[in-house]
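User: New here, any thoughts?
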Amino acid sequence: MNSNAGRIFWGVVLILIGGYFLAEIFGVAPELSDVGWVVIMAILSIGFFTLYFAGGMRDWGMLFPSFILAGAAAAVWISTRYEEMGTLAGVIMMWSIALPFWAAWLSNRTSNWWATIPAWAMTALGVIIFFEEFLGSEMTGALVLWSIGLPFLVVYLRDRTHWWALIPAYAMGVIGAVVLFEEMLGGEFVGALILFAIALPFLVVYTRDRAHWWPLIPAGVLGMSGAIVLLEAVNTADEAIGGVFLAGLAVIFLLIFALYPKNWWAIIPGGILLSLSATVFLSVLPLEQTWDGRLLELVSYGGMAVTFGILWLMRARWSTGWAKYPAVGLAAYAVIAAVFGSEVIWPFVLIAVGVWILLRGRSSLIDEVEGE
């Protein structure tokens, strides 16, 4: 069957199906029963199979609608005729999705190696569904996760250059184990273990190639998030938890700069986060109410000013001469807020802007006079 014949075939089929649905809406034709749906899906499946074989079995993409529609027809038939075999209907659906992926892999095992991942996952899910009533809910969940992770492990073992496959394999394996032993662990510990499990592969990626610094960020963020969950489990004060989290994030960025000095930009988030962390810790101290707010602003904005000041001191090595402007501005803000209170900041800002405008105007006037 050539492409034109295929278009004619499917055009006629779609017109007939659409016409029937239209007739059903206007009450001319009876409502389609379960058997009717089975017949339609079976016809469509046969049509796609026909196109696949007529095309010389080269277009394995045709097998997806072929098998899935056939599986759906069988699942509907079984679930309506034999209610006690509803589990079998689920198995058939999973395997009907798996079969075209297996066919894709068999058609070219070299370039279509990726198809083994969904093929195995769907096949295993079908088996798990079949035995679900004999398994506990925890075991079922764990097996589902392991069945998804296993093909990624096989991909890595077959070709060690696909090291990325270890990340989902490891994550699914650990999360599956956590689900299996969830009742033995507290909810907080389960959440922390999942975060640690996701963080570890990023750390492994970094250790494999130290030239890539970026995995340190997701590894650090996820690791700190897991630590925060554990701190909450032992009823640590919320303020202290926030301070620890901010300090941990700051350390991540400062570590990136320490290991890779070319990434001088990491000083900015590192210094800002460290300043905010110190502010959070100070907020829990029993200070006098008046001085409390001023001290927090001094530490917060003063720390940010120091951050940009450090960048400015590095101007001989990197292009950071611009950092003096935010450093001076933040330092002035911190001092004024600490001495007079933050409510007077904006009047000072307006005065400073006015003085700057006057000085600029005076400078322009002098240049004009000298030019004459």
Notes: The chain is about 75% helix and 0% strand. Residues 343-372 form one domain. The radius of gyration is 33 Å.
